[in-house]
Amino acid sequence: MTIQKSAFGTTPDGVETSLYTLQNRHGLRVKITNYGAIVTSILTPDVQGKPGDVVLGFERLADYIPNGPYLGAVVGRYGNRIAHGRFTLDGQEYRLATNNGPNHLHGGNEGFNTKVWQAEELPEENALKLSYRSPDGEEGYPGNLEVTVVYALTDDNGLEIDYTATTDKATPVNLTNHSYFNLSAGKADSIRDHVIQLNATRYVPVDDSSIPTGELADVAGTVMDLRQPQRIGQNLDQVPGGYDHTYVLGQQPGQMARAAEVYEPLSGRVLEVFTTQPGVQFYTGNFLDGSLTGKHGHTYTKHYGFCLETQHFPDSPNQPNFPSTILRPGQTYRQRTIYRFSTRAPQHEA
Ligand code: GLA
């Protein structure tokens, strides 16, 4: 399929950016900019075949600078939090920006979400390859890191995201995509009535500043249990602050897990999430506060969208019992996540 390219705007530093439109033969159409590797739009058919845009975002580059909630962006070098912006690796202490209370969040003051990536169109694979070289010492991280993110559309309406990275010094790496979904495409301004099912028996409990306690807790008998389909709103108000937690997927390293499924009853849309990552951060847009108005004139109030950010666990560089996030010279970091869209006819209530 041909990929369309258009101008998306110029950064304050004078760098031109582009917007790439990928589409397949089954009604999936995705727009991606090489600024922050941001997915700006995902058009998918509803149960009647009518297309609608299911992600939060903006029409213009200027609105993404800054992008406080990380709408649609790839976050890195380390997605999620590192306690006090500090970690020790091979006997050396590193200090990172503390841009989220006492902690480091999503790569620091100028994370990968603020970088202009090199873009290469791969029309044969219906894909866009974005590359970024993060220099040694950027935001305090060790080593030159070469990162690529390939976004590809599959025939079964998947948006497949392949991440790779290599380094010349040992460094933590944790890459994710921070898209916010509202599958109603404008019919509902809250995700409370979306129905979620998350295949995780454990989650990562956190302290007041969202740093893991180190424990992996059983969801059974708690409001964190999303194993059976339930309205996101069912227990949302019982979760202090709203859902903003990493769930443990428990698959073998490198294997794809079917992490989650979300169904939206007004449109009949279904989102399934598959990933090789060990965790998924379920975040219910708790910090959206109505100060941003996005595409189609929609104002992003609290719980307007949800994220399913596939990733390693927060603060892994300081948590010896969590799967390692350290990439060493000679190794290749590889992760794959697929967001797959489909529809389902509404169930008639008895
Ligand atoms: C992640 C974090 C949240 C919040 C958002 C961005 O999902 O876990 O706490 O920082 O990013 O607003």
Overview of this structure, please?
- This protein has 350 residues and is mainly β.
- The protein is 1% helix and 38% strand.
- The mean pLDDT is 97.
- It has one domain: Beta-galactosidase, Chain A, domain 5 (Distorted Sandwich), CATH 2.70.98.
- The strands form seven sheets. A nine-stranded antiparallel sheet has the order 11-12-13-14-27-23-22-17-20.
- A hairpin with a 5-residue loop joins strand 2 and strand 3.
- The longest helix is centred in the last third of the chain and has 4 residues.
- Bound molecules: alpha-D-galactopyranose.
- Alpha-D-galactopyranose binds next to strand 24 and strand 25.
Considering the chains and any ligands shown, give keywords for the structure.
single chain, 350 residues, mainly beta, nine-stranded antiparallel β-sheet, five-stranded antiparallel β-sheet, 1 helix, 38% strand, binds alpha-D-galactopyranose
Radius of gyration: 19 Å
Poorly predicted residue ranges: none
CATH class: Mainly Beta
Assign a percent range to the helix content.
Answer: under 10%
Q: Would you count the extended β strands for me? A: 27
How are the elements arranged and paired?
Blueprint lengths: L3 E7 L5 E8 L5 E5 L4 E8 L5 E3 L20 E2 L5 E2 L3 E4 L2 E4 L8 E2 L12 E5 L4 E8 L10 E9 L4 E10 L3 E2 L3 E2 L17 E4 L3 E2 L13 E2 L11 E2 L1 H4 L7 E5 L8 E8 L4 E7 L3 E5 L23 E5 L14 E2 L5 E11 L7
Antiparallel strand pairs: 1-2, 2-3, 3-4, 4-5, 6-16, 7-10, 8-9, 11-12, 12-13, 13-14, 14-27, 15-26, 17-20, 17-22, 18-19, 18-21, 21-24, 22-23, 23-27, 24-25
